[in-house]
Design a protein that fits this description.
This protein is of the alpha/beta class. It contains five helices and five strands; from the N terminus they run E-H-E-H-E-H-E-H-E-H. It has helices at 11-22, 34-43, 60-70, 85-93, 106-117, and strands spanning 3-7, 27-31, 48-52, 75-80, 98-101. Strands 2-1-3-4-5 form a five-stranded parallel β-sheet, sandwiched between helices.
């Protein structure tokens, strides 16, 4: 069982991922903003963070550094519906584990999570 934090302002996506990941008995927490996600990560560092790039106030790419400051060992997977070469390059420079472009399948999430937890 892994501790997973989902940071995304799309409620439907968060709830779908939470329900799917809980089937494998993972502990799943959800935040609708980067600031809330950082507070949750600081309180209890997750094994894996699924982080949207486009968020209100602080964007996900900025949040990567903040999450690393409070949960250095967490694996970060960024997600976006607006994938660009620039954002992918920035994410990789920040040493994120994976860059996912929405929409993605639940099977993709499972595969990424399984690899991240190995």
């Amino acid at each position: 069982m892994a501790s997973i934090l989902i940071i995304d302002d799309e409620v439907r996506l968060c709830e779908s991922l939470r329900a799917f990941l809980k089937k494998d008995l993972h502990e799943v927490r959800v935040a609708s903003s980067a600031e809330r996600g950082i507070r949750l990560a600081k309180a209890s560092p997750p094994d894996v963070v699924f982080l949207d790039i486009r968020l209100p106030k602080m964007d996900g790419l900025t949040a990567v550094s903040e999450i690393r400051n409070v949960a250095a060992d967490s694996t970060i997977v960024v997600m976006t519906a607006f994938g660009t070469l620039d954002s992918a390059a920035t994410a990789l420079k920040k040493n994120v584990y994976e860059y996912l472009v929405k929409p993605f399948s639940l099977e993709t999430i499972k595969a990424v999570l399984d690899r991240a937890l190995e």
